Amino acid sequence: MSKYKVTIGLEMHCEVSETNSKVFSSSKNEYTDIPNSNVRPYDMGFPGVLPVLNKEAVRMSLMMSEILNCRQPEYMYFERKNYYYPDMPKNYQITQNPPEDCVGMGGYIDIIREDGSSFRVDIDNIHLEEDAARMTHLYDTSIIDYNRAAVPLLELVTGPCLHSADDAVSFLEYIRAIYQYCGISEADSKKGQIRCDVNVSISDDDTLGTKVEMKNVNSFSGVHDAIEYEIRRQTELKDAGRYDEVEQETRRWDEESGTTIRMRSKVDAIDYKYFVDPNIPKFKITKEWLEEIRNSIPELPYERKEKYISSYGLTDYDAGILIKDINIAKYFEKCIELGSDAKMAANWITSNILGYTYKHEIGIQYLYLTPERLNVIISSIKDGKISSKQAKELFFMTLEREEEPDEIMKKEGIEQISDDGAIITVITEVLNENKSQIEEYKNGKTNMFDYFVGQVMKKTRGQANPVKVKEVLTNELSKR
Description:
Blueprint: E1 5-15, H1 55-67, E2 75-76, E3 79-82, E4 92-95, E5 104-112, E6 118-130, E7 134-137, E8 142-145, E9 152-158, H2 165-181, E10 194-203, E11 212-217, H3 220-239, E12 249-254, E13 259-265, E14 275-276, E15 283-284, H4 287-295, H5 301-312, H6 316-322, H7 326-337, H8 342-360, H9 371-382, H10 388-401, H11 405-412, H12 420-433, H13 435-442, H14 448-459, H15 466-478
Parallel strand pairs: 11-12
Antiparallel strand pairs: 1-9, 1-10, 2-15, 3-4, 3-14, 5-6, 6-9, 7-8, 10-11, 12-13
């Protein structure tokens, strides 16, 4: 924990991926690995091309503005942000110029930490703009993919109100979940749909220190580590009496070295020479449309968390994990729909399944072990067909072989022995082979009971129902 007051502001960029076309272009708005395949003349900045605004992108932007408790403008218009760079061939970006008439202004949202405490994040603004093309810098050349050019992009700007890396990440994770739950974006960082700019400063008191910006951090873990590093860097300079060396600048986060690296002095907004785009008519946002959008807001993550706790009896921790990603929540709810026990399903998802998906870097929606297949495993445990240990083995075999779990159970003979007669036969055999141990048990050495259970499980190769074994063993020992 820093001995100075840390102040953090975030700029979260999220592509609106759930529209059919781009924000000002008729190109398909779809992620693809084939470069320059979703491109139209507008995206390339050809002379004479005109933008046409995507109404659905505006609707989604206004929905997000409402969720963030922002005020919306009476009229909406767009401006040109002028700069020269290969990723923007028109030499300007169509955007909105905060704080004037953005899609959302002056809002807030409350975030709940894992320990149950909460904090409020002030929203300076959220605005709609077009994304730039994607540039990849190689050793001696740069290549450009214009698929991303003109994709609708929502930029959410917080106030300087966060004070730790953990809180910053909690905020980002919840906002990502909202984008997913509302069907605005997949919000998949692996597809480059989420990027963050992070501003960090330190000071001795409540005044703001010199702000340092870190551009385009592509993962939430990167955001966390970049903030922690920048706090250390600025603290070391301040402790050494060299805080004047901390200047308002733009740096980048380098994952390999775990450091931030200077890029350039910070550019002020005035250098972009904003002016109203003359090709997009100003239009009125009606109260009726806003009311319609407000009524279409779906169940949000925290609301779903409350439902999981109250309706299914889940712990606050498990419910919190399940709501972090819409695909995890959908997986869990499908399990419930199929009749799986809610607590068992939650336990399997939060431990075994998410552990597997994280290790193999696969989304839960692409997992071979679908809710239907998991339900077979959970039902088999509840019906006493297999033990918890066998269930875990079956879990991994299903994933590795990509075969149906009930077929594997038949092939491998994975079935719990619960028949009293079969269990009595094995217990009798074990007791006959361990007469001296029975005497020790009778003389007060009660831990021999576990020894007998272990011998039974060994003889049945772990297939005996342990509850049945203990019940029958107690009865059989009382006869000796």
